[in-house]
Write a structure and sequence with these properties.
The chain is α+β, with helices and mostly antiparallel strands and 283 residues long. The protein has a single domain (7-275), classed as DD-peptidase/beta-lactamase superfamily (Beta-lactamase), CATH 3.40.710. Helix content is 34%, strand content 20%. It has 10 helices and 9 strands. The strands form 2 sheets. The protein has a 7-stranded mixed β-sheet, with helices on both faces. A hairpin with a 4-residue loop joins β2 and β3. The protein is globular.
Length: 283
């Protein structure tokens, strides 16, 4: 069964999609279409989708439902969640403190800036937080294509395709995933419902935690890649906890190569969440 949260509600979603004008403000169903979120995409001159799931009530807030449920994109560095789980489960990653030595190759970001945080020896935790591609490419090579394919099939993650090299298929549009499937993945991870040992899932959840204070805990993984047509794809997937209550989110953005996607992703996410009354510990 696919990991997406909406896939089990096919009939409901069909009705909602075709009659969404009936439920823009208030709906007896579990999906609320919130077009006001579109202003964040319009102001940044990008397209995309956003989904927020309240685990306590089972309610979704979604902007651009068709893209959320039906459109698939390369996962880019959000795949580090899956790659980490498989690496830990198979022993290729011992724990979050495991170091992989830098190979001495100086990498740069697409905008030409030197990837300073990548060009050194890194622990798994450091590599995850810096989204260091070389570290996880080496992890993928150590996992191997057959084992990687086994776990993609077990998870039913996205299109489950490894059409190219095992150390880059999540970056080159070989593998694609919908925002709905990304949300389903992180929700199952949070509740230790993925087909991995609890330890493997706990380690990945630990390194996903980015902000923690008395009001909230914010855990996420970013992603940045390019579609076949050259458009830039940005992701943030994860959850926010207030009063020990989790809300799961997915932000998917598409723009041209000059979109400044790296700072935009987090700025948009935080602005949307703030509009939804997060960050003050009152949810």
């Amino acid at each position: 069964m696919k990991t997406g949260l909406l896939n089990q509600r096919t009939v409901l979603i069909f009705l909602i999609f075709n009659f969404s004008f009936l439920i823009i403000s208030c709906s007896p169903n579990n999906v609320k279409i919130d077009n006001s979120i579109g202003k964040y995409f319009e102001n940044n001159k990008v397209t995309g989708t956003f989904g927020l799931y309240d685990n306590g009530t089972g309610q979704f807030i979604i902007y651009n439902l068709s893209r959320f449920k039906d459109s698939a994109y390369l996962p880019a560095s959000t795949f580090k969640i899956v790659n980490s789980l498989i690496g830990i489960e198979t022993g290729r990653i011992v724990n979050e403190k495991m170091v992989i030595k830098w190979d001495g190759v100086v990498r740069k970001f697409p905008n030409g800036d030197t990837a300073v945080a990548w060009n050194k020896d890194l622990t798994m935790e450091e590599a995850f937080k810096a989204s260091a591609v070389p570290y996880f490419q080496e992890v993928a090579r150590r996992i191997g294509k057959d084992t990687m394919q086994h776990w993609l099939d077990s998870l039913k993650y996205g299109t489950q395709k490894i059409k190219t090299a095992v150390d880059g298929f999540w970056l080159d549009n070989s593998l694609k995933v919908t925002p709905d499937e990304e949300m389903g993945l992180v929700k199952k991870l949070y509740f230790n419902q993925l087909p991995f040992q609890k330890r493997s899932q706990d380690i990945v959840k630990k390194v996903m935690l980015q902000e923690s204070n008395s009001n909230y805990k914010l855990s996420y993984k970013t992603g940045l890649g390019f579609k076949e047509n050259g458009n830039e794809i940005g992701w943030i997937v994860g959850w926010i906890e207030e009063n020990r209550h989790p809300y799961f989110f997915v932000l998917n953005i598409e723009g041209d190569r000059n979109s400044k996607m790296i700072p935009m992703r987090l700025e948009m996410l935080k602005a949307i969440l703030k509009d939804q009354a997060f960050f003050d510990g009152k949810r």
